[in-house]
């Protein structure tokens, strides 16, 4: 054990190596990171240009660095690249979306979506070279098949998805958070175990050269924050 290591409740704790920046550098980095992430957009028009598997692996590794309740890491990133499976997913998603857009969603909801220009057609599910289907583990299963508890599963998986999305942006690729509802068909098509529920579906690839995004704007700092003394 190194000098600064210690046991807490019998578990090893090791030194945290903080990265230290000057105030000037900190300010610059925080501003640059914001400006760079602010360029991210949900893109629905993909190129079918190939993206190396190693890139997708690194993006998933990045998502796997997310904090999680009791460090249970209650996520599974299922990756689809084959055209047959993509076609099946598209077909099932479009079937659900058709019902959503033509009855299940309220008038108000449809009005709210109008600026985004979405509809039941999900071409991106076949066009994008990769589909990442994120599953949450509502409970865990150990090597012996025994159940164990997970905690704050939605929060944990939501944070991991945020990190996934920023890693996709960092690679110069695009995605969108697709939530076909209900999503049960994904667990069936991907033959997931009983403890997993589909959480989010993210197509990943290059943006189409002629991709358009809605001209919508983000809330300003004073709208999304309130500072207290
Ligand atoms: N899940 C549908 C509808 C949809 C819902 C919301 I809230 C959006 O921000 C976008 C779409 C779909 O994917 O089309």
Walk me through what this model shows.
One of its GO terms (molecular function) is oxidoreductase activity. This is Nitroreductase family protein. Pfam families: Nitroreductase. InterPro entries: Nitroreductase (IPR029479), Nitroreductase-like (IPR000415), Nitroreductase/BluB (IPR050627). It comes from Christiangramia crocea. The protein is an alpha+beta fold. The chain is built from eight helices and seven strands; from the N terminus they run E-E-H-H-E-H-H-H-E-E-E-H-H-E-H. It has helices spanning 23-37, 53-63, 83-104, 107-113, 124-127, 153-170, 184-189, 221-224, and strands spanning 6-8, 11-13, 75-80, 130-137, 139-141, 147-149, 196-204. The strands form three sheets. A three-stranded antiparallel sheet has the order 3-4-7. A two-stranded antiparallel ribbon has the order 1-2. Strand 1 and strand 2 (11-13) form a beta hairpin. Helix 2 (53-63) packs across helix 6 (153-170). The longest helix is centred in the middle third of the chain and has 22 residues, at 83-104. The mean pLDDT is 96. Residues 97, 100, 113, 116, 118, 178-181 line the site of 3-iodo-tyrosine.
